[in-house]
Automatic annotation (TrEMBL):
Name listed for the protein in its UniProt record: Diguanylate cyclase/phosphodiesterase with PAS/PAC sensor(S)
GO molecular function: cyclic-guanylate-specific phosphodiesterase activity
Organism: Thauera aminoaromatica
Keyword Acetylation belongs to the record: no
Gene Ontology terms describing biological process: cellular response to nitric oxide
Every CBS domain range: 29-85, 93-151, 227-285
Pfam families for this protein: CBS, EAL, GGDEF, PAS_9
Domain GGDEF: 459-592
Residue span, EAL domain: 601-855
Keywords: CBS domain
Domain PAS: 307-346
Domain PAC residue range list: 375-427
Recorded coiled-coil stretches: none
Catalyzed reactions: 3',3'-c-di-GMP + H2O = 5'-phosphoguanylyl(3'->5')guanosine + H(+)
Length: 855
């Protein structure tokens, strides 16, 4: 039909059209046909179009349609050349124009749109008379609306809180109620005694009635005499489709909604249905996109649905034949690439190539396609404008029933914006804002790379722990501003004293870590360390003040002291403490004897083995609240270890140990079971719905049979899977994405929810996150901490929130310690919040006391 989409979507006409599967073209078109002669000047044709608010005009000569000019064609008008406006329509129209009959079924029309690559058809009735124009959009929207209406139930619109006025109340009260409640009708209650049938009890008075009463100059009378009766009703579980039919049939605009017991619970108006619509349509599209892979692979069975999905998809879609010749593209494709269908149909997709990928890259892509039948990855392509941009591309090979390859379907999203944000997050997350040096995270990455490199080249590598002596004193006596300037200067000197391919990172506070590669031996490391200590001792001028700081440096060498990154850093740390003990202002090479800590570790390990059988483990629970409103929605189970001598040991200290020793597997299972059991107690006490969030460690997640264990714990404890959220970290998913994906799918099949914990501290690869079936993101408390003071943190959190939302995820902020934190988070639209501002983790008894389940 011939009108702008948004208009169509919200027009009442959209509702008066039956949209069942036998729908024919004649039923969905508007009879608003505009025609002109070929010689009509363009500006005249355009004027008539805008006056009548139609989006196209037919060009007719001798009662024959010779062309069409549309709003889309208007986009091609050259506004700099005034003579264009006077051109005859003939010169700019598209032709030929194809014809369909009013009797053509919609599904047939859909197929024709695809095969004939046109955007409009003229519609003729049985006698050959032109009656309208139908566009592809019309078809999609009709399907969309019907689909929407059939899927949605009336109760989705019920707001509750129906207030009926008694029949004895006056007109004045009714109008006041409508005005103040912002509603356009009120229900009038004639009382239960009067009810021959339940519906007979109620009547209705609408705005339209009031207008009529004004026109009739009616004096104030009891509503009982003025209302229409009975009130037409439907059931809460009726589909909106049925309700729409009822409204149309009876020529009414309101309907009462009865609940399961036949009680009237609300009044729903035509307007209510309309207003939720645009939004809901977008949601529906979203769901349709999810279904797209299915729809594509089942393309024979359900070509029709695929067609609709493709047409309306927000992602670019390109379908080629088996020889990779482009058959069709969708509007999103045109939006993203700048190429109209007629410009690319018949060509090879290589017209889009940016030249950035190597032939080997494409060879791998084809391997994947021919082997697994699909391929996914990031690709740089070129727009028609020449601009190169990144896209996330998913290609599926489509085979027919006999297994013969017939088509390829490519789906892609423009991820330039995602990339930018990702880069920003990475930048924020990988560098220390004060000194501009890499932070610990980036150092960890580089150290891994350097170690692999050293192993390959069989050369040495040194890790140096650099710590300023008595820095705290400077900070305390001269203030943070001076301390900060000093750190910046020290960082610059460290950087300057190293070679280009060495790394220096700030680990936090006054600690730096240096990685020297390509060393010939421990002596060379010692020489460098000596030079560094001397260099840093030179006086620093800060705000006219001469400061002298000395440093202590600890050195550990690969492969002599260890081959493992963490151990090297630990050894360097130990050596640095020894340097301090020895009187500071010096360096120390690591010696095994220093490593008394490892003995401590052994003792702890032995104790941890006994923790489970001796019942020393306990769960604490921390509430998670709605950021807006503050209701309790979830609780995170956090593990505690009551060591007989050491007292309460922090999970941060023993979880890594438990991971190393594999003890995390039985411990993790215990945590999950215990959390589920506590949840059951909550439900039995009549508690409101509450999510239980449980942390899963990497080792646990990788364990064969992890998902099966979760499944059996759910079954044994009678836990509702949907109430359980497992918290994973990004690195678990990135290590081996295909396996991780399979595991996640397995977990999702159980019905549990999945969250990414500590988000922002890992890869922060949102484009890839999109691939995983995740429900929630938890922003690490590191970023929340400075959110009310530090614009970088605030920018980062805001970026995570908006991107999380754009991927359809719920966003939780951790470590919310103050009202100011919460305030910023709320403004940024963060969904949930957790932290000391609300409550620390509590033993179950205290948790229940603070948040009583029933009440
Ligand atoms: P996490 O998953 O990030 O848990 C949140 C941590 O932040 C908890 O530390 C919690 O006490 C602390 N926290 C909560 N609110 C605030 C706040 O407002 N400010 C600050 N500064 N901290 C806050 P906790 O309990 O010490 O746990 C530390 C980590 O140990 C957890 O970090 C989690 O990674 C791990 N962990 C705890 N329980 C388990 C478990 O059962 N299994 C596994 N695999 N890991 C666990
Ligand atoms: Ca957690
Ligand atoms: Ca966390």
């Amino acid at each position: 039909m011939n009108r702008p989409e948004s208009d169509r979507l919200l027009s009442e006409e959209a509702f008066s059209m039956p949209g069942n599967d036998e729908t024919r073209v004649g039923e969905i078109i508007g009879r608003n046909l505009l025609e002109c002669a070929p010689d009509e000047p363009l500006h005249e044709a355009a004027r008539r179009m805008s006056e009548r608010r139609v989006s196209s005009i037919l060009v007719v000569e001798d009662d024959r349609v010779v062309g069409i000019w549309t709003e889309r064609d208007a986009l091609r008008v050259d506004f700099d050349d005034p003579t264009t406006f006077a051109l005859p329509v003939r010169a700019v129209m598209s032709s030929p124009v194809r014809v369909v009959s009013t009797a053509t079924p919609l599904h047939e029309l859909t197929v024709r749109f695809r095969e004939e690559h046109v955007r409009h058809y003229v519609v003729e009735d049985e006698t050959g008379r032109r009656v309208g124009i139908v566009s592809q959009t019309d078809v999609v929207l009709n399907q969309g609306i019907k689909h929407y209406l059939k899927l949605r139930r009336v109760d989705a619109l019920v707001k509750g809180g129906l207030h009926a006025l008694p029949a004895a109340a006056g007109l004045g009260e009714a109008t006041r109620r409508m005005r103040e409640g912002g509603v356009d009708a009120v229900v009038v209650d004639y009382g239960a005694a009067d009810a021959s049938a339940p519906a007979g009890r109620y009547g209705i008075l609408t705005e339209r009635d009031v207008t009529r009463l004004v026109a009739q100059r009616t004096a104030d009378r009891a509503l009982g005499e003025l209302a229409s009766r009975p009130l037409v009703t439907c059931r809460a579980d009726d589909s909106l489709y049925r309700v729409r039919m009822l409204l149309a049939e009876r020529h009414i605009r309101h309907i009462g909604v009865l609940d399961g017991e036949g009680e009237l619970v609300d009044l729903v108006s035509f307007k209510d249905i309309l207003s939720g619509m645009e939004l809901a349509y977008v949601h529906e599209l979203h769901d349709a996109l999810r279904a797209r892979d299915l729809a594509l692979s089942a393309s024979q069975r359900d070509l029709y649905l695929a067609e609709k999905v493709i047409e309306s998809s927000l992602e670019g879609v390109m379908v080629t034949d088996a020889h990779a010749r482009i058959l069709s593209v969708n509007p999103a494709f045109t939006r993203m690439t700048g190429y109209a269908p007629e410009e690319v149909v018949g060509l090879n997709p290589s017209v889009l190539n940016s030249g950035r990928q190597s032939p080997a890259f494409y060879a791998r892509m084809w391997d994947g396609l021919l082997g697994d039948g699909q391929w996914q990855g990031e690709v740089w392509n070129r727009r028609k404008t020449g601009e190169v941009y990144p896209q996330l591309l998913h290609i599926t090979a489509i085979r027919d029933r006999e297994g013969v390859l017939t088509h390829y379907a490519a789906l892609f999203t423009d991820i330039s914006r995602l990339k930018e944000t990702e880069a920003r997050i990475r930048d924020l997350a990988y560098y220390d804002p004060l000194t501009g040096l890499p932070n610990r995270r980036l150092l960890d990455d580089r150290l891994q790379v350097e170690l692999a490199h050293a192993a390959r080249l069989r050369c040495r590598l040194a890790v140096m722990f650099v710590d300023l002596d008595r820095f705290k004193r400077i900070n305390d006596s001269l203030g943070h501003a001076v301390g900060d300037k000093l750190l910046v200067e020290i960082a610059a000197r460290l950087r300057a004293s190293l070679r280009d391919d060495d790394t220096v990172a700030r680990m936090g506070g006054d600690e730096f870590l240096v990685v020297l590669n390509n060393l010939s031996g421990p002596d060379e490391a010692a020489t460098m360390a000596r030079r560094m200590v001397a260099e840093l001792r030179r006086p620093v001028n800060v705000e006219g003040r001469e400061l002298v700081v000395t440093t202590s440096v600890g050195v550990a060498v690969y492969p002599d002291d260890s081959r493992d990154a963490d151990t090297l850093v630990k050894h360097a740390d130990v050596a640095m403490y020894r340097a301090k003990d020895e009187g500071r202002n010096s360096f120390q090479l690591f010696e095994p004897a220093m490593n008394a800590r490892s003995l401590e570790r052994l003792a702890l390990e032995t104790a941890l083995h006994r923790a489970l059988p001796r019942d020393e483990l306990q769960l604490y629970f921390q509430p998670v609240m709605k950021a807006e409103g503050g209701e309790l929605v979830a609780v995170e189970a956090l593990l505690r270890w009551r060591h007989p001598d050491l007292g309460l040991v922090s999970p941060a200290d023993f979880i890594p140990l438990a991971e190393d020793t594999g003890l995390i597997v039985p411990i993790g299972e215990w945590v999950l079971r215990s959390a589920c059991e506590h949840h059951r107690r909550w439900c039995e006490a009549g508690g409101a719905p509450l999510h239980m969030m449980v942390n899963i460690s990497a080792r646990q997640f990788r364990e064969e049979g992890f998902a099966a264990m979760v499944g059996s714990v759910l079954a044994e404890t009678g836990m509702t899977p949907g109430d359980l959220t497992l918290e994973l970290t990004e690195s678990m998913l990135m290590d081996d994405t295909d396996r991780a994906l399979a595991r996640l799918d397995h977990l999702r099949a159980l019905g549990v929810c999945l969250a990414i914990d500590d988000f922002g501290t890992g890869y922060s690869s949102l484009a890839y996150l999109k691939r995983f079936p995740i429900d929630e993101l938890k922003i690490d408390r590191l970023f929340v901490r400075g959110i009310d003071r530090n614009t970088r943190d605030a920018a980062l959190v805001s970026a995570i929130v908006s991107l999380g939302h754009s991927l359809g995820l719920r966003v939780v902020a951790e470590g919310v310690e103050t009202a100011a934190h919460l305030d910023v988070l709320r403004r940024q639209g963060c969904d949930l919040a957790q932290g000391f501002h609300f409550s620390p983790p509590l033993p179950w008894e205290e948790f229940v006391k603070a948040y009583p389940p029933a009440g």
